[in-house]
Specification:
Blueprint: H1 3-21, H2 25-45, H3 48-60, H4 65-90, H5 94-127
Helix pairs in contact: 1-2, 3-4, 4-5
Length: 129
Protein backbone atom coordinates (compact mmCIF):
# COMPACT_ATOMS: atom_id res chain seq x y z
CA UNK A 1 0.00 0.00 0.00
CA UNK A 2 1.38 3.35 -0.97
CA UNK A 3 0.84 5.34 2.21
CA UNK A 4 2.55 8.38 0.68
CA UNK A 5 -0.08 8.54 -2.07
CA UNK A 6 -2.89 8.09 0.44
CA UNK A 7 -1.50 10.81 2.71
CA UNK A 8 -0.98 13.12 -0.25
CA UNK A 9 -4.51 12.61 -1.57
CA UNK A 10 -6.00 13.19 1.87
CA UNK A 11 -3.99 16.34 2.65
CA UNK A 12 -4.55 17.96 -0.75
CA UNK A 13 -8.26 17.12 -0.78
CA UNK A 14 -8.69 18.37 2.80
CA UNK A 15 -7.09 21.70 1.91
CA UNK A 16 -9.22 22.07 -1.22
CA UNK A 17 -12.38 21.04 0.65
CA UNK A 18 -11.77 23.58 3.42
CA UNK A 19 -11.15 26.32 0.86
CA UNK A 20 -14.29 25.36 -1.10
CA UNK A 21 -16.42 25.25 2.04
CA UNK A 22 -16.32 29.06 2.17
CA UNK A 23 -17.78 29.43 -1.33
CA UNK A 24 -19.83 26.32 -1.99
CA UNK A 25 -20.43 23.69 0.68
CA UNK A 26 -21.78 21.13 -1.83
CA UNK A 27 -18.53 21.07 -3.79
CA UNK A 28 -16.61 20.60 -0.55
CA UNK A 29 -18.60 17.46 0.22
CA UNK A 30 -18.13 16.15 -3.32
CA UNK A 31 -14.37 16.68 -3.07
CA UNK A 32 -14.27 14.78 0.23
CA UNK A 33 -16.26 11.87 -1.17
CA UNK A 34 -14.12 11.69 -4.33
CA UNK A 35 -10.95 11.70 -2.24
CA UNK A 36 -12.37 8.93 -0.08
CA UNK A 37 -13.18 6.84 -3.15
CA UNK A 38 -9.65 7.35 -4.50
CA UNK A 39 -8.16 6.28 -1.17
CA UNK A 40 -10.48 3.27 -1.03
CA UNK A 41 -9.39 2.19 -4.52
CA UNK A 42 -5.74 2.62 -3.54
CA UNK A 43 -6.29 0.35 -0.55
CA UNK A 44 -8.29 -2.25 -2.47
CA UNK A 45 -5.68 -2.34 -5.23
CA UNK A 46 -3.13 -3.73 -2.78
CA UNK A 47 -5.26 -5.97 -0.58
CA UNK A 48 -4.98 -9.25 -2.51
CA UNK A 49 -1.82 -10.48 -0.66
CA UNK A 50 -3.63 -10.07 2.67
CA UNK A 51 -6.65 -11.99 1.35
CA UNK A 52 -4.39 -14.81 0.14
CA UNK A 53 -2.69 -14.97 3.55
CA UNK A 54 -6.02 -15.12 5.40
CA UNK A 55 -7.24 -17.88 3.05
CA UNK A 56 -4.01 -19.82 3.70
CA UNK A 57 -4.42 -19.46 7.46
CA UNK A 58 -8.06 -20.57 7.36
CA UNK A 59 -7.33 -23.57 5.14
CA UNK A 60 -4.37 -24.65 7.29
CA UNK A 61 -6.64 -24.46 10.33
CA UNK A 62 -9.07 -26.78 8.56
CA UNK A 63 -11.90 -24.27 8.41
CA UNK A 64 -14.45 -24.24 5.62
CA UNK A 65 -14.21 -21.79 2.72
CA UNK A 66 -17.70 -20.65 3.74
CA UNK A 67 -16.18 -19.06 6.86
CA UNK A 68 -13.67 -17.11 4.78
CA UNK A 69 -16.45 -15.93 2.51
CA UNK A 70 -18.48 -14.70 5.49
CA UNK A 71 -15.40 -12.99 6.91
CA UNK A 72 -14.59 -11.13 3.68
CA UNK A 73 -18.19 -10.12 3.04
CA UNK A 74 -18.48 -8.86 6.62
CA UNK A 75 -15.31 -6.83 6.24
CA UNK A 76 -16.62 -5.37 2.99
CA UNK A 77 -19.91 -4.41 4.63
CA UNK A 78 -18.02 -2.80 7.52
CA UNK A 79 -15.79 -0.76 5.23
CA UNK A 80 -18.62 0.37 2.95
CA UNK A 81 -20.96 1.25 5.81
CA UNK A 82 -18.23 3.20 7.60
CA UNK A 83 -17.28 5.04 4.41
CA UNK A 84 -20.91 5.94 3.69
CA UNK A 85 -21.53 7.02 7.29
CA UNK A 86 -18.42 9.20 7.35
CA UNK A 87 -19.46 10.78 4.05
CA UNK A 88 -22.88 11.52 5.52
CA UNK A 89 -21.27 13.09 8.58
CA UNK A 90 -19.06 15.23 6.33
CA UNK A 91 -22.22 16.45 4.63
CA UNK A 92 -23.73 17.32 8.02
CA UNK A 93 -26.22 14.44 8.05
CA UNK A 94 -25.36 12.69 11.29
CA UNK A 95 -28.83 11.11 11.64
CA UNK A 96 -28.46 9.52 8.22
CA UNK A 97 -24.97 8.34 9.16
CA UNK A 98 -26.36 6.51 12.18
CA UNK A 99 -28.96 4.79 10.01
CA UNK A 100 -26.28 3.66 7.56
CA UNK A 101 -24.23 2.22 10.44
CA UNK A 102 -27.32 0.42 11.77
CA UNK A 103 -28.04 -1.02 8.32
CA UNK A 104 -24.44 -2.26 8.10
CA UNK A 105 -24.68 -3.96 11.49
CA UNK A 106 -27.96 -5.65 10.57
CA UNK A 107 -26.51 -6.79 7.23
CA UNK A 108 -23.59 -8.40 9.07
CA UNK A 109 -25.92 -10.20 11.47
CA UNK A 110 -28.01 -11.51 8.57
CA UNK A 111 -24.87 -12.57 6.70
CA UNK A 112 -23.56 -14.37 9.79
CA UNK A 113 -26.73 -16.39 10.50
CA UNK A 114 -25.41 -19.55 8.77
CA UNK A 115 -22.28 -19.33 10.92
CA UNK A 116 -24.35 -18.96 14.09
CA UNK A 117 -26.47 -21.93 13.02
CA UNK A 118 -23.36 -24.04 12.50
CA UNK A 119 -22.00 -23.09 15.92
CA UNK A 120 -25.34 -23.86 17.56
CA UNK A 121 -25.52 -27.28 15.84
CA UNK A 122 -21.98 -28.07 16.98
CA UNK A 123 -22.85 -27.11 20.55
CA UNK A 124 -25.99 -29.25 20.49
CA UNK A 125 -24.02 -32.21 19.15
CA UNK A 126 -21.37 -31.79 21.85
CA UNK A 127 -24.03 -31.67 24.55
CA UNK A 128 -25.60 -34.78 23.10
CA UNK A 129 -28.93 -33.33 22.06
Amino acid sequence: MNIVAIAGISIVSAIIAVMMKKYNHEYSVIISICAGVLILFEILKNISPAIKQINTLLSSAGLSAEYAEILFKSLGICFLAQFAADSCRDAGESALALKVELAGKIAIVILSLPLFESIANTAVNLIGG
